[in-house]
Amino acid sequence: MLNRPPAQPLNAVDVIGLAIARLSHGGNHIGVIYQSTAVGLTLAHLAWHHDLRFERPDDKYIWLDLAPLDEMNKRVSAAFFETLRNEHPNIPYGFDMRGECFDESGNFIPPPLGKGLTCATFVLATFRAHGHHLVDEETWPTRAEDEIWQEQILQLLTQSAATEHIQALENDIGAKRYKPEEVAASGIRMSTPSTFDDIKQLADGILRELAEVGPWQV
Amino acid sequence: MDQDDFEHDWVFPHRMDVSSEGFVFFSIGEAADRFSRWHVGLVGDRTISASTQMVVCGYPDAGPEVRLLVPGQYSARAKLPASAPTNLTWLFPETESEQSSQAQLVKAIAGIRQLVASNSFDFLRQLLTYVSTADSAKPDIMVAALRAANTARRKIPGWKNIIENARNALRDRNLDADRLLKGL
């Protein structure tokens, strides 16, 4: 199910997959790993506010092949991420992913003040743009614990985001949160879109594996 | 109508693309009647339709312009909109492999996005209809093109028919069309 380097190196990914790591502050982080024929194995991830990165992944990530995608769609999806790497959009951090994130021509839409993506919704939104609905968003719950996390992120963002963005983002405290381990779990199931109930146990299993690997100092 | 009618510059009213394979893909929109009648007269017994293939004897030599020649018939020149892509090699890459390379897929995606960005939705309809049924279209390019157009699906006329045509074409090639096109 999950692959853990160095025994299962990231480079063994079948064209495209998901990679997840535990960070030192206790949160988890997710991105898309794919084979770029131009630059080699690449991790595409929204590291932070206006900080979309395409870089070689660290071995602290555990990873999985994308089960919902057939061989051809894996190659096509990798090409989409390669296109995104070439365009390198400037994506703000935000909690509310409702609405379209990419315009008709596939370009990231500069969102209204306070809106943006998390590392997890970046993954969902990019796949959704080309027709791969990994999760059924309607089935996601709003949870009190997510508001606490959002408050914490808001505090961290004050160090790097504009005051106007922070103020607008406060309005989205309480928005649905898609946790990195939940998004990763949606990549394990062959069937899409996954409902919240479909992935809950899988996500808990991923959390246990991340706890074994331990945090990554960033 | 004689040959001279076709030897002077003629402002083509619609988008036209030329592939390196040497055929022209015409995009004929609502104002195409004039064009169709002209070329029915020009080529005699050939029927000109939205995806008629014609031999190209020359390539753009003066900006966005191509010269056409139907063998044994007349030549004509057509000017293209400056913003139009001038060839379709990105959609029909020349390769012996059954699989397209990542670079070829990236080019197909970029080409479709460029057409969406230029609001060429009717042309996209014709192009995607052609790609989704042409024997020369590779399945992975077909899937990439359709997925690249997904964000503009509401503006592309006949989107559902295009997907259904693609589904049938993929099935004809013994591929799992439902899985390949899931979500579109």
Please give the structural blueprint.
The complex is a heterodimer of chains A (218) and B (184).
Chain A: E1 16-22, E2 28-36, E3 40-48, E4 51-55, E5 62-65, H1 71-87, H2 119-129, H3 144-157, H4 163-169, H5 180-186, H6 196-213
Antiparallel strand pairs in A: 1-2, 1-5, 2-3, 3-4
Helix pairs in contact in A: 5-6
Chain B: E1 9-11, E2 16-18, E3 24-26, H1 33-43, E4 65-69, E5 75-79, H2 102-117, H3 121-131, H4 139-149, H5 159-172, H6 177-180
Parallel strand pairs in B: 1-5
Antiparallel strand pairs in B: 2-3, 4-5
Structural class of the secondary elements of chain A?
A: alpha+beta
Summing up helix and strand content along with how strands pair, one would put the structural category of chain B as: alpha+beta
Biggest sheet of chain B, open or closed, and with what strands and sense?
A: 3 strands, mixed
Mean pLDDT of chain B: 64
- Please tell me how large the radius of gyration of chain A is: 16 Å
Number of strands of chain A: 5
The best one-word shape of chain B is globular
Order of helices and strands of chain B: EEEHEEHHHHH
Compute the number of strand runs of chain B.
5
How far is the N terminus from the C terminus of chain B?
A: 47 Å
- pLDDT < 50 stretches of chain B: 1-86
Q: What spatial order of strands do you see in the largest sheet of chain A?
A: 4-3-2-1-5
Helix fraction of chain B, binned, reads: 25-40%
Q: Helix coverage percent of residues of chain A?
A: 25-40%
How much of the sequence lies in strands of chain B comes to 5-15%
Describe the overall structure.
- The complex is a heterodimer of chains A (218) and B (184).
- With 218 residues, chain A is of the alpha+beta class.
- Chain A is built from six helices and five strands, in the order E-E-E-E-E-H-H-H-H-H-H.
- Chain A has helices at 71-87, 119-129, 144-157, 163-169, 180-186, 196-213; strands at 16-22, 28-36, 40-48, 51-55, 62-65.
- In chain A, strand 1 (16-22) and strand 2 form a beta hairpin.
- The model of chain A has no long low-confidence stretch (mean pLDDT 91).
- Chain B is α+β, with helices and mostly antiparallel strands and 184 residues long.
- In chain B, the strands form two sheets. Chain B has a three-stranded mixed beta sheet with strand order 1-5-4, with no helix packed on it. In chain B, strands 2-3 form a two-stranded antiparallel sheet.
- In chain B, helix 2 (102-117) packs parallel to helix 4 (139-149) and helix 3 (121-131) packs parallel to helix 5 (159-172).
- Residues 1-86 of chain B have low confidence and may be disordered.
- The A-B interface holds A 35-38, 70, 72-73, 75-76, 78-80, 82-83, 86, 100, 102-107, 129-133, 192 and B 99-103, 105-106, 108-110, 113-114, 116-117, 139-140, 143-144, 147-148, 150-152, 155, 175-176, 179-184.
